[in-house]
Specification:
Number of helices: 10
Mean pLDDT: 97
Strand content: 15-25%
Radius of gyration: 18 Å
Oligomer: single chain
Number of domains: 1
Helix content: 25-40%
Distance between the termini: 49 Å
Shape: globular
Length: 253
C-alpha cells in the first residue's frame, strides 16, 4: 500500500511530465474513480495541481450546479449549493467556498493571484459562459484544459465556444435566480440559461479537428490525461461551428 508521501511524489511527477507549469490558466476536469488510487484524495490532488503550475498561474475547477440550483427552487448559495459534476469539484467547493465564482449554474473555483476578482466578476455575466466566466477567460488567454480520466467529452469550456457562435440549440428561456454570496447577501438576477433539450453534447469531436501539436497525452496513475491548448480550440473549433452549427451535438429524435 502506498504512503501519502509516495502518492504525493508520484502525482507531482506525473503532472510535471505534462508541461503545464507556465500556463497562465489551467482548467481541470477529473474523474477520481478513473485515477484508481485510494491514497490520492481530492485534497492531495488539488495540492499537487497547485504545486504543478507557476505562482502566477490560475487553476480553475468547474463546480457546476445546474441540477442542484434548480432543485433548490433556482436558488444558488456559493457556500452550500452542491456541485453536480463529481467528487473532486464537490470537495474543492466545500473546502474553498470563498474561491467559488458567483454563477447559479456554471460556477467554478479559482486559485491564483486574481482569483477573487475573477470569482466576483462572474456575477456580471447573464449567460453560463460569457466574457467574465473564468472558463472564457482561459479560452481567450492561451490557457490549457486538462481532462483527467474523463476523456474530451465533459469539456465545459466548449460552452464558451458555443456562446461565440450561438447555435440554435444553445439557449433556453430567460429565468430569474436568487444568488447568495459568501457574506450571505442575496441578489435576484435574470439569466439566459443553456437549453440542450433536443440535443446531446458531442465535445469529443473536438479532437478530430486538432493536430498532434495542439494537445498532449499522458497518465496520472491509472487515468489517461489529455491537455488541450485553448488557442487551438479558438482557431479550429470556432470556424467549424460557424459553418456547421450542430457539429458538436447530436440531435435527439
Amino acid at each position: 500500500m502506498s504512503t501519502t508521501q509516495e502518492v504525493l511524489q508520484k502525482c507531482l511527477k506525473d503532472l510535471k511530465s505534462l508541461n503545464i507549469y507556465n500556463t497562465p490558466y489551467l482548467t481541470v476536469h477529473t474523474s477520481m474513480k478513473s485515477i484508481n488510487e485510494k491514497a490520492l484524495t481530492p485534497q492531495i490532488l488539488l495540492e499537487c495541481l497547485r504545486q504543478s503550475i507557476s505562482p502566477s498561474s490560475h487553476l480553475i475547477v468547474p463546480t457546476l450546479s445546474y441540477i442542484s440550483t434548480e432543485n433548490a427552487g433556482d436558488v444558488f448559495n456559493v457556500r452550500t449549493t452542491p456541485s453536480d459534476v463529481g467528487l473532486f469539484p464537490e470537495t474543492v467547493r466545500k473546502l474553498f467556498p470563498q474561491n467559488r465564482s458567483l454563477h447559479p449554474t456554471h460556477s467554478v473555483c479559482v486559485f491564483g493571484d486574481n482569483s477573487e476578482k475573477m470569482c466576483l466578476d462572474h456575477f456580471k455575466d447573464s449567460t453560463p459562459a460569457g466574457k467574465y466566466s473564468p472558463l472564457s477567460i482561459n479560452l481567450h488567454n492561451d490557457g490549457l484544459i486538462m481532462m483527467i480520466g474523463c476523456g474530451p467529452f465533459p469539456n465545459t469550456t466548449m460552452h464558451a465556444v458555443e456562446e461565440l457562435v450561438n447555435p440554435g440549440y444553445l439557449f433556453s428561456d430567460k429565468k430569474r435566480y436568487s444568488i447568495i454570496d459568501i457574506n450571505q447577501n442575496r441578489s435576484i438576477k435574470e439569466y439566459l440559461p443553456h437549453g440542450f433539450k433536443t440535443v446531446m453534447q458531442r465535445y469529443d469531436r473536438l479532437i478530430e479537428l486538432l493536430s498532434r501539436n495542439d494537445y498532449l497525452q499522458g497518465e496520472l496513475f491509472s487515468a489517461g490525461v489529455l491537455v488541450i491548448k485553448c488557442s487551438a480550440i479558438l482557431k479550429k473549433a470556432v470556424p467549424v461551428l460557424e459553418k456547421l452549427p450542430y457539429y458538436f451535438v447530436d440531435e435527439i429524435n
